[in-house]
Structure formats: C-alpha cells, structure tokens
Amino acid sequence: MANHPSPKDRRNTAREQARQIAAAQAKKEKTVKTILYAGIAVVVVAVVAVVGTLVWQSSRPVAPPQAMVSGTVAFAAGEDGIQAVQPSGEEEGADVSDLPTAADSGAAEGAAVVKVYLDFQCPGCKAFEETNGETLSTLAEDGSIVLEYEPVAILDRQSGGNEYSTRSANMASCIADSGQSELLPDVMLELFAQQPGEGQTGMEDEQLLSIAESAGVDVDAEVANEDSATVRDCVTEVAFDRYVESSTQDALNDEGLQGTPHITIDGEPYQGDWSNRETFAADLIRASGQS
Q1: Positive or negative: CA dihedral 96, 153, 247, 105
Q2: Which of 20, 34, 50, 261 is 20 to 30 Å apart from 3, CA to CA?
Q3: What is the CATH number of domain 73-287?
Q4: CA torsion angle 203 208 209 214 (round to 10)
Q5: Which helix or strand (DSSP H or E) is residue 283 part of?
Q6: Where in the numbering of this chain does the Thioredoxin-like fold domain appear (predicted)?
Q7: Residue 233 burial by CB count (10 A; 0-12/13-18/19+): exposed, middle or buried?
Q8: Among 171, 191, 215, 176, which residue's Cα sits nearest to residue 122?
Q9: What would the pLDDT profile of 86-99 be if each residue is shown by its tens digit?
Q10: Which pLDDT band, with edges at 50, 70 and 90, does 291 fall under?
Q11: What DSSP letter does each residue of 229-268 carry, written as one string?
Q12: Does position 6 have pLDDT exceeding 90, yes or no?
C-alpha cells in the first residue's frame, strides 16, 4: 500500500518550491539590476567625457591666425605697393614674427595708425571703402599712415540665417593664417563689391572662395590652424568662428565699438566726416604731422 505524504510534508514541499522560485527570481532581478546599473554607469561616464571635452574646448584659448593680433591685420609701405606688417597691440599666442614692423617696412616716423573696424555685411562699410579705400591704400603706400583692418561679426542676423558676417570674417582669418594676408585688401574690396543685401542670404562657401581666388589667393595653400589643412578647408569648416566671435566681443566690450564702420586714429575714435574723401584724407595727413 503506497505511502502518501502527510499534510505537513506537503506544506514543507510547497514552502521549499516557493523558496526556490523566490530565490531564482531574486537572482534574475539582481542580474538585471547589475546590467542596468552598469549600462547607466557607461552612459554617465560617456556624458561626463563629452561634457568635459566641450567645456575644455570652450574654455581653452582660441589660437589667433598668423599675421593677426586681436583680429587685426596691418599694412604699410613696401617695395611694391603696400605690404602686410605686424599689427599694433599684443595677443597671447599671436605669431607675427614673419612680418616686418611698420617702421622696418617703410612707414614714416610718426605715421598715424588708422584702424578700420568693418563688417562685410554692413552697407555703411561698403560705402566707406568705396569712398576712402583708394585714399587709405595710397597713404599707406607712401608711408604716411599704417593701415589696420579688423573684420568683426555683428550683423549675422541680417544674412538670411547663414551667418555671413562670421563666415566672411573667418575667410579673412583663414587667408591670413596661410601667410597670404598681403592679398586681403583686394579680397575685401571684392567682398564689398559683391556684398549681399541686408536680409538676403549671404554668399555660400564656393562664392567666397571664388572671390578669394580672383584676388590671387591660393585656396589650396596650407594654413597653420591645427584643425584645417588648407584655406579651402578652413573656410568650409569655419575654423576661426570662435576667434571671430572672441575678437568681436573684445572690440564691443573693451575697444568702444558700437557699430561699423568705426575708425580710430592712434587709438582715438575719428570724429570727422569720412563721407567727404578730401576732408578725411586731410585729417589723416594732419594726424601724421605732415601738415
């Protein structure tokens, strides 16, 4: 006659089965939690690494382009017209050692430093250059003045969303960084000649590069910027956007810039009438002590 488990034995068996099921479930949940926490940890580490990289990139000094100091390029008398010279002022990391000083270039003793802040999207800057560009080049060529230009970007909102002010100023930086800054006056002249209207979409990269090439720039020349190989790459990658932004903010915050064109003579704002070519030229010559 078969022995049947007693009620007590059945209860003990049921308890043991329930304990085993609970233990298996707990082990499964622990494994899932371990995998989940490990995944979260990996994500957190990745996020921290990305954030850390972005913070480091945003906080590290922006390396200036060659031949520029605080966003400025300078020109003075040379053997064959005007030539690029060392801009006045100082900037950490700036490398202008390959350029002569204005005095070594041929600028007269006491030649006034005439600085023009401009935005390539600015209609007033176009009018200024059309009126006085030739005068400035002539006075720089004969040693009467040292001519400085600082492209800034304060009118990005007026270029149909493609940040033309920043991108055109960036191209000037790229050209300077390739050692071809002596070509910038011709590049600037053509940029203003083809200036997009306010509110219209700014020129695309290939249009900008075409203007540079028409002025004699070798767009396949290498640049010093570590993130770009050539002028073309530098333009398409907008490699100096942070530099343009930084130098523009410095001009607004520290140099008294309120709008463009803004002209200073030996660091002091020009208060005369630049729309009158003869008057403006006479004021520059007077500032250089030649009258």
Answers
A1: positive
A2: 20
A3: 3.40.30.10
A4: 120
A5: helix 277-287
A6: 106-273
A7: middle
A8: 191
A9: 999 889 888 898 99
A10: low
A11: SBHHHHHHTTTTHHHHHHHHHHHHHHS---SSSEEEETTE
A12: no
Nearest to 263 by CA among 147, 135, 92, 106: 147
Q: Which two tokens stand for residue 157?
A: 């909102």
| Higher per-residue pLDDT: 29 or 83 | 83
The candidate with the shortest Cα–Cα distance to 228, out of 210, 215, 241, 246, is 241
Q: Is the pLDDT of residue 30 over 70?
A: yes
Query: Strand 262-265's sheet: what is its strand order?
Result: 81-85, 73-78, 145-151, 112-118, 262-265, 268-269
The confidence score (pLDDT) of residue 60 equals: 42
Q: What is the pLDDT of residue 55?
A: 37
What one-character DSSP code corresponds to residue 222? B
pLDDT confidence of residue 24: 73
| Tokens 């970007």 -> residue | 153
| Structure tokens given for 219 | 């767009």
Task: Compute how many other C-beta atoms are within 10 angstroms of the C-beta atom of residue 71.
Answer: 29
Rounded CA-CA distance 162/181 in Å is 25
pLDDT of residue 95: 87
What dihedral angle (degrees, nearest 10) is formed by the CA atoms of 53, 57, 58, 61? 150
Q: How far apart are CA 113 and CA 145, in angstroms?
A: 6
Average pLDDT of the residues in 187-199: 93
pLDDT higher than threshold 90 for residue 79: no
pLDDT at 36: 62
**For the chain, which residues make up each domain, given as ranges?**
1-60, 73-287
Of 68-72, 90-94, 142-146, 242-246, the range with the lowest mean pLDDT is: 90-94
